[in-house]
Write a structure and sequence with these properties.
By secondary structure, this protein is an alpha+beta fold. The chain has 10 helices and 32 strands. The strands form 8 sheets. Strands 25-26-27-28-29-30-31-32 form an 8-stranded parallel beta barrel, surrounded by 5 helices. Strands 3-2-5-10-7-8 form a 6-stranded antiparallel β-sheet, with no helix packed on it. A 4-stranded antiparallel β-sheet has the order 1-14-6-9, with no helix packed on it. Bound molecules: beta-D-glucopyranuronic acid. It is an enzyme of class 3 (hydrolase). Belongs to the glycosyl hydrolase 2 family.
């Protein structure tokens, strides 16, 4: 799915700002038709933002159900001959959209974009009313899953993942124009042949028979290095400048739709990083060279704005990661804003790209986040309806992110149940579909501690073993010596059993900034530091370990509970991005110049 762009033939209008907003726990707006008029009794709400922490009221923070947003936009009068599209970069977790009185879009899933051709519903030069109802309910059929309980205080949302269920319009909203005939999708797959690079392109378009596709590949200086004709083909670049970790070199692939008289009808610019990714035995290769992941599992999370995308926060986080010498991160536990992947592309940061399938595990999470023990995969809990939503989430992730050179590995779920025959049955079709959609990238999922080497029945479907382990924290608490022995034993079992590269996608310890101890005391800054150092010693002893991503980059908000103190504190930075002591140790490990 192409991002909106300003080009010679296209224009964008950003709809961010203050929108009229109103919660609707009873669902009254859908029957009363609130889209037909101004929202009754509305307050103002920023877009993008999670609405939860904007208002100092638990009713807002813990709201379950519909939330209405409304704004008006004047459609540029210069768009008279154009196709007009309304695009939401995300709406968490689902939305219905109206333009004036007409429903134009519905979308399920809180972290991927959707759009509607609204040409027939707007008049260039005039105002249009845009109304969106965003719903945040999580059920057995949603990704991520959850369950709603009736309590004396009203409906309460339960969920099985460890981050706060922020909701609202978290990313930009756009009105944009394209010509009626237009480029609708581009897929670029790159290869290397010695010093040369190849770019296989496929351009989809909605166009007339006498219009043809023409592609031009330019280097970073704007010099044309290859050209092609037709909707599909392979371009060759001699002496290619490769995209590589730390070197985010991008070419510009312009796809133009050209009429028989030579007029350019539509033009779209797709960034392309020429690189290869493959798994060879226990090695993870980028451009044929072994790559070792250093970095973090992150969250889109900050005070006040919740999960909203924010350029200042994004650039700051990337600068902090660079200061540490981190070369990668995982988009735990959902697809991040496209701005983040674009930045990673430009700066040579390596990304493990994850769906929002987190908490598919009632063995683990059921005991922590719920009071009732249930079976994970069953007709009453997580069954075929969830699997269908999950498949769609995989499709939308790959459709959105397939052209990012920074994305080197797909993660289709975090810590699902994976040690039962039911889990294997659930995951087989998901792996098959992801492979069909993208045969070019390695594929995996993140394994949970409850399904260790020898017990996991899903890992053999993956190209890479990704594991989250908490030796020294949830088990062997405060005992780093036993933790070290157990960690090493398990990693060796993975290495021997699977013969695949292993990435430790989570390890860490909750740490209260400012709490100090001379002995191994969980929650202290020194314990975090010593626990991480212990993991690093073990990783350095096992060749098959090709990556270390600490949990977490920064402290983050969770649902309230007796095992969280104002959120999860496993950050190497606080939520305000101040370093804990271990940041300086990491900087010495990862940033060889520091
Ligand atoms: C893992 C989850 C992650 C949690 C982390 C923790 O993948 O989302 O935040 O543990 O407990 O189970 O800190």
């Amino acid at each position: 799915m192409l991002r909106p762009q300003d080009t010679a033939t296209r224009e964008r209008k950003n709809l961010n700002g203050l929108w009229a907003f109103r919660l609707d726990a009873e669902g009254a707006g859908r029957s009363a038709g609130w889209w037909r008029d101004g929202l009754p009794a509305a307050r103002e709400m920023p877009v993008p933002a999670s609405y939860n922490d904007i208002v100092p009221d638990l009713e807002v923070r813990d709201h379950v159900g519909d939330a209405w947003y409304q704004t008006t936009v004047r459609v540029p009068k210069g768009w008279a001959e154009e196709r007009v599209v309304l695009r939401f970069d995300s709406a968490t977790h689902r939305a219905v959209v109206w333009v004036n009185d007409t429903e134009v879009a519905r979308h399920e899933g809180g972290y991927t974009p959707f759009e509607a051709d609204v040409t027939a519903h707007v008049t260039p030069g005039e105002q249009a009313r845009v109304t969106v109802v965003v719903n945040n309910e999580l059920t057995w059929e949603t990704v991520p899953p959850g369950r709603i309980e009736d309590t004396p205080r009203g409906r309460k949302q339960k969920y099985y993942h460890d981050f706060f269920n922020y909701a609202g319009l978290h990313r930009s909203v756009w009105l944009y124009s394209t010509p009626a005939a237009h480029v609708s999708d581009i897929t670029a797959v790159t290869g290397l042949e010695g010093a040369a690079g190849t770019v296989h392109y496929t351009v989809a378009s909605e166009s007339a028979a006498d219009q043809a596709v023409r592609v031009t590949l330019r280097d970073a200086e704007g010099v044309t290095v290859a050209e092609g004709e037709g909707a599909e083909g392979t371009l060759r670049v001699e002496d290619v400048h490769r995209w590589a970790p730390g070197d985010g070199y991008l070419y510009d692939l312009e796809a133009a739709l050209v009429a028989s008289d030579g007029t350019v009808v539509d033009s779209y610019h797709q960034s392309v990083g020429v690189r290869t990714v493959e798994v060879d035995g226990t090695r993870f290769l980028i451009n044929g060279e072994p790559f070792y992941f250093t970095g973090f599992g992150k969250h889109e999370d900050a005070a006040i704005r919740g999960k909203a995308h924010d350029d200042a926060l994004m650039v700051h986080d990337f600068e902090l990661m660079e200061w540490l010498g981190a070369n990668s991160f995982r988009t735990s536990h959902y697809p991040y804003a496209e701005e983040v992947l674009d930045y990673a592309d430009r700066h040579g940061v390596v990304v493990i790209d994850e769906t929002a399938a987190v908490g598919i595990n009632l063995g683990l999470a059921g005991g922590i986040f719920d009071d009732v023990k249930r079976v994970t995969f069953s007709d009453e809990t997580m069954g075929e309806p969830l699997q269908r939503t999950h498949l769609q989430a995989i499709r939308e992730l790959i459709a959105r992110d397939k052209n990012h050179p920074s994305v080197v590995l797909w993660s289709i779920a975090n810590e699902p149940e994976s040690d039962t025959p039911e889990s294997r049955k659930y995951f087989e079709p998901l792996f098959a579909e992801a492979r069909r959609l993208d045969p070019t990238r390695p594929l995996g999922f993140v394994n949970v501690m409850l399904a260790p080497a020898g017990k996991c029945l899903v890992s053999d479907l993956a190209d890479v073993v990704m594991v989250n382990r908490y030796y020294g924290w949830y088990v062997n608490t405060g005992d780093l010596e036993t933790a070290e022995a157990e960690l090493e034993k398990e990693l060796r079992a993975w290495a021997e059993g699977q013969g695949k590269p292993i990435i430790m996608t989570e390890y860490g310890a909750d740490t209260v900034s400012g709490l100090h101890s001379v002995v191994d005391m969980p929650w202290s800054e020194e314990y975090q530091d010593r626990l991480l150092a212990m993991y690093h010693r073990v990783f350095d002893r096992i060749d098959a370990v090709v990556g270390e991503q600490i949990w977490n980059f920064a402290d983050f908000a969770t649902s309230p509970g007796i095992f969280r103190v104002d959120g999860n504190k496993k950050g190497v930075f606080t939520r305000e991005r101040r370093p804990k002591g271990t940041a300086f140790t990491l900087r010495r490990r990862w940033n060889k110049d520091a």
